[in-house]
Specification:
478 residues, alpha/beta, Rossmann fold, 2 domains, ten-stranded mixed beta sheet
Length: 478
């Protein structure tokens, strides 16, 4: 269906993060799938449609597997699309990614009380790296009709440079994180440049209506643009951009089928040996280690839960799977140190014999092991302080084919607007959070089955292919 909608067009996805990286383990090269909502969603789409994914090659073996055009076919076991890798210098990576993208734009867009750092040198590198990605698009596009789907806050300016060189290329951008309210966005020194870049797209997508409205408000207040609220469009310098909500999702059937593969079941059987403390009740968290994910709040809630309900001491274990990220940024390193120190403090407080309540695993893990964690868990805890969507919650629901586990989900995620049968929490309210853990444990099996089935129906109705299809349909109407 998606392939038919794209007939006659070259299809390109542009993002900073690559879907797969190649890494050396000893002398062998291993391929790893990236963790995160963007990759989860778009890898499924490109496997369905074919095309080219343009991304930064970050793996230490990435250069050793590409052809002369810096392209490798992916996925490894069933190649369906081209992965075109862009190479960045250390200075470019530092200023573009660790600098402007994640010390300026990321905190600007998340309400977590972290002051953004705006550095003009970082911004200039950000601009030049966006030009580099645009040049790769233009090189592949040539004179053919092309549809370029750019992803997220690292790529704000790509469409501007594409349109300047080839106005006939159809460009769209999906913004995966929240959009700040206009009063917050106003502090960005490069706000005009950011908005001009975004409004170079023919279509601009956000997860939910709320973020669309915030963006339209910013357009009204910050630039001389004509905002059509009923049409949800912005006309700026003669070019019209449609602004639409598209709640991102997953390939639900694929997740469910993979979760039932024999080697996932084998991994489930091995988990009690791998998770050192003995347990009767297993709660899991699967997050990139980031201050927006509410991991510290999660630990505080577990501490309070065990203190308030001592009958679960010796029985309950929380396993936090967390991919380390952005360690070059000082406050990320400080956040990781804080998580480790708090974990040690809580484990010391409650340790009894071989049992302790919290296990941290920061090692990179393969996807089938992540599915095994979902399947084995009695509870999955998603406690984001501010999150555009959060696909871990949807993956957990889809993989929960025996209806064993219950989802605890932050109200401050886009997913909470769809997964209303989850136990919804305010992660800042530690007392209620602790009570919610007890509630999840004590739900009857009939109640869990009923809730999980309803959530599965919701995510199946709005799967990743329908998400992409709606996006492409809106472009086709232009």
């Amino acid at each position: 269906m998606l392939k038919q909608k794209l007939e006659g067009y070259q299809f390109m996805v542009v993002s900073n993060r690559e879907p797969y990286s190649h890494e050396y383990e000893g002398r062998k090269i291993k391929c790893f799938k990236a963790i995160g909502g963007l990759v989860t969603a778009l890898d499924s789409v490109l496997q369905s449609t074919g095309g080219t994914w343009i991304a930064y090659g970050s793996g230490d073996a990435d250069k050793d597997v590409v052809d002369k055009n810096d392209i490798v076919r992916m996925p490894v076991n069933n190649p369906r699309y081209n992965l075109k890798r862009i190479w960045l210098t250390k200075e470019e990576e530092n200023d573009f990614y660790y600098g402007y993208s994640n010390q300026a734009l990321w905190p600007l867009c998340h309400i977590v009380y972290r002051q953004p750092l705006f550095n003009v040198s970082h911004y200039n590198t950000y601009l030049n790296v966006n030009k580099k990605f645009a040049a790769a698009v233009l090189d592949i596009a040539g004179k053919e009709k092309s549809f370029v789907w750019t992803q997220d806050y690292q790529m704000c300016l790509v469409a501007k440079f594409i349109k300047e060189a080839n106005p006939g290329i159809i460009t769209a951008l999906f913004w995966h994180i929240p959009w700040p309210n206009p009063e917050v966005f106003r502090i960005c020194p490069q706000k005009i440049e950011i908005m001009e870049g975004l409004l170079s797209n023919d279509l601009l997508g956000f997860h939910i209506h709320y973020h669309c409205h915030r963006f339209l408000e910013a357009c009204e207040q910050e630039i001389e643009a004509k905002v059509q609220w009923e049409e949800m469009s912005v006309t700026y310098k003669g070019h019209t951009t449609l602004v639409r909500p598209f709640p991102i999702s997953i390939d639900t059937q694929n997740v469910a089928s993979q979760a039932n593969l024999h080697f996932v079941k084998n991994e489930i059987d091995n988990l009690p040996d791998e998770i050192d403390p003995p347990y009767e009740i297993l709660a899991v968290g699967v997050d990139r280690i980031d201050y927006t994910k509410g991991i510290v709040e999660k630990l505080y809630a577990i501490d309070r839960f065990l203190e308030k309900y001592p009958q679960y001491q010796g029985r309950f274990v929380f396993f936090q799977q967390g991919a380390l990220s952005r360690l070059h940024i000082k406050y990320y390193k400080e956040y990781i140190d804080r998580i480790q120190a708090l974990t040690e403090e809580i484990n010391w407080k409650y340790r009894c014999g071989k049992w302790y309540p919290i296990v941290l695993n920061n090692r990179r893990t393969e996807y089938y092991r992540q599915l095994a964690l979902y399947r084995a868990a009695d509870i999955c805890i998603v406690s984001s302080l501010h999150d555009g969507m959060n696909l871990v919650s949807k993956e957990f629901v889809a993989s929960n084919t025996d209806f064993k586990g219950m989802l605890i989900l932050s109200k401050f995620t886009g997913a909470s607007r769809e997964l209303k049968e989850a136990i919804l929490i305010n992660p800042y309210d530690i007392e209620n959070f602790a009570d919610s853990i007890k509630e999840a444990i004590e739900l009857s099996q009939d109640e869990k089955t009923s809730r999980v089935k309803k959530m599965q129906e919701t995510i199946e109705e709005n799967n990743v292919y329908k998400w992409a299809g709606k996006f492409i349909e809106n472009l086709a109407k232009l």
